[in-house]
Amino acid sequence: MQERNIITPESVKEIPGFLITLISDFFKRLFYIFRIVWETRKWILFLMVFMALFNGVMPVAGAYINANLLNALAKAFLQQVDFKLVTFLLGLQFGYFILISIVNNIYSMLNNIAGQLVVNHIKLKIMYKAKEVDMASFDSPEFYKKLENANREAGHRPIQVINSTFNIISTLITMISFITILWVISPFAPFIIILVSIPSAIINFIYRRKNFMYMRRRSKDRRQMNYYSGLVVDKDLVKEVRMFNLSDFFIGCYKETFDKYFAGLKKLIRQEGFWHIGLSILSSVVNFFLFVFIARQVIAGKLQVGDYALYTGALNSISSGVAALIATTAGIFEGTLFIDNMIEFMNEKRTIVPSTQEPGNPVRHVGHVIQFENVSFRYPGTERDVLKNINLTINAGDTVVLVGLNGAGKTTLIKLLTRLYDPTEGRILLDGKDIREYDVDEYYKIFGVIFQDFGKYAFKVNENISFGQIDKGFDSEGIYEAALKSDADSFIQKLPDKYETPLMRIFEENGIELSIGMWQKLAIARAFYSDSDILILDEPTASLDPMAEKAVYEQFDELRKGKTSIFVSHRLSSTTLATKIVVLEYGEIIEEGSHRELMELKGRYYELFSTQASRYVESYTELD
Question: Is the pLDDT assigned to residue 205 strictly greater than 50?
Fold first, then answer.
């Protein structure tokens, strides 16, 4: 039998503690936002303090000027007052409007500048954090949820929350002033308005939290919508999408996801809207009776016409002030909840760090010995070992080729060696020392890596090559030599601006789109440009034709002199370069040795090599 939720004395006792925690968390988030703005520019907060005081006092001053002007005009009409007083009050009102206009326009200008600065500051914080987080984080949907939420909301929310906070201060100053004014004729009127507004405040807070929780839960829907819409407009996919007529399918996926996402959001908006309609009618009825009360005071001669304007204006200001306080406070509450997204992202823990307080630096420009000792690995959140009990030694100057079918664990082994991930079990040694004991950034510098999914950057040709070692500086001669060695110079010389040619038509009208083979040659040029001790090439020639592949391998013979080299390749012709071939299958090393040794063994490598060689022979025979 299902247990019913019953309110007990014990559960009631927990409510104060819950409220204390809620309020405490709210102020912690608010303080975090203030700190972000303070870090951006200190003058932004000082500007907002000034505007809070200015906006709080000026409505009261304006109401007094207007009331006295109306009273003076009424007396002037009855010829009971000098017209000079009316002229003075008109001039004062004119000055008031001019001052309000100037200050608000200056504030609007500075506030827009402040908003851009805060957004920039937060974007930089997110980028710097993304630079630090582990590679494993980028394999986690939960991480992407945090990143998406941080990017989506954190940019504009802080300045919005700060503005709202100081608007509350302004509103409170104005309301207290008008409550003091109204006290003369009725001390109860302001409190009646405030009392009537309490239900509206409760509804606001309830639905702000519901809205926040809904947005957080449906983060996946928003990411899917962005993904589907991105597929249709992605310049790299447009050919395939058009030829396979996939646009309507992706648009349909987008619409279906949006309908699911919007259905729940629309329900929340409707529910909140109906509550506010009912409560606004109640508030209007109360205001009407209070206005009637003040009008009767004027008719009875107890108040002047200008006083009616002053007191009804005070009632309106208190009523609108309470509504503004409720909406603004609810908005701040919602905004601080969304800032949780950024806080969560910024609190993402980095585990790829040195394991010692005083990490060492690898010795540079010498031969290195690499040892895998009982290394196993599974990706975070999964149960299957991608690598199982790997034991492997790579000596200084070795050229090692990793062989195996897709999914054998070759690229994962490279990721572990380069410490993009840490092993689940076992350890990896560099020159007899656990790689976790080295400074991470210094450790990365010993590698020159070309990954299978190498980067294509919308920069100039020479800049793309220089990314092979960005801290080396811009060495034009070194870039040229790297391009020669990778055979990239042959097509670069034919480009409109040669090495200064911008690539990809994303930002520049004269940007050039390269073929995948050309991009791969640029990626290989990066490896030549890098001053690395260990060269790692993950399918380095996958997109090259046989002639270009042969030329690149000949250049690699020069590049790998005095270096340890590790290749991942499906084209087993490259294995003839190797001093050691490692055959992986289902995450385990099943064979290891030279080409001759493994061919004589007639095991898995022999089978793979013979199958590929026979296919080449058959193709050649057919062409002949």
Answer: yes
Top pLDDT among 580 and 551 is at 580
> In this predicted model, what pLDDT tens digit does every residue of 41-71 receive, in sequence order?
888 888 888 887 887 777 777 777 776 766 6
Quick check: is 190 in a domain?
A: yes
Residue 621: its pLDDT value, please? 44
Rounded mean pLDDT, 444-466: 85
HEC readout, 46-109: HHHHHHHHHHHHHHHHHHHHHHHHHHHHHHHHCCCCCHHHHHHHHHHHHHHHHHHHHHHHHHHH
Does 362 map to a domain? no
Same domain for 538 and 527? no
- Report which DSSP code applies to 529: H
Residue 457: in which H helix or E strand, if any? none
In a domain, 315, yes or no: yes
Q: Residue 323: pLDDT band by 50, 70, 90 thresholds?
A: low
Q: Where are the alpha helices (DSSP H) in 577-603?
A: 595-601
Whether residue 412 is found in the same domain as residue 507: no
* Residue 172 and residue 165 in contact, taking contact as beta carbons nearer than 8 Å: no
Could you give the dihedral angle defined by the CA atoms of residues 333, 338, 342 and 344, in that order, rounded to the nearest 10 degrees? 90
The identity of residue 380, as a single letter, is: P
Provide the pLDDT confidence category of residue 563 given band limits of 50, 70 and 90: confident
Q: What percent of the chain is modeled with pLDDT above 70?
A: 72
- The answer to whether 487 and 521 are in contact (CB under 8 A) is yes
Amino acid at 42: K
Query: What per-residue confidence (pLDDT) applies to 622?
Result: 45
Tokens of 236: 């790299």
Tell me, yes or no, whether 414 and 320 share the same domain.
no
Confidence of residue 303 (pLDDT cuts 50, 70, 90): low
What is the rounded average pLDDT of the residues 570-583?
77
The alpha carbon torsion through 70, 72, 75, 81 (nearest 10 deg) reads: -170
Residue 591's H or E segment, with its range, is: strand 588-593
Whole-number CA gyration radius for the chain = 36
Domain co-membership, 203 together with 54: yes
Range of the domain at 199: 9-217+271-346
> Tell me: the pLDDT tens digits for 379-398?
877 888 899 999 999 998 88
**DSSP class per residue in 533-557:** SEEEEESTTTTS-HHHHHHHHHHHH
In a domain, 65, yes or no: yes
Work out how many domains the chain is built from and give that number. 3
d(CA 171, CA 65): 19
Domain at 93, CATH number: 1.20.1560.10
609: domain CATH number is 3.40.50.300
Kindly state whether residues 571 and 588 are assigned to the same domain: yes
Residues 394, 463 within the same domain: no
Residue 543: pLDDT over 80 = no
β-pair partners for 564: 534
Looking at the fold, whether 282 and 325 belong to one and the same domain comes out as yes
Do both 422 and 537 map to the same domain? yes
Measure the CA–CA gap between 410 and 406, rounded to whole angstroms: 8
Whether 590 and 410 have beta carbons less than 8 Å apart is answered as no
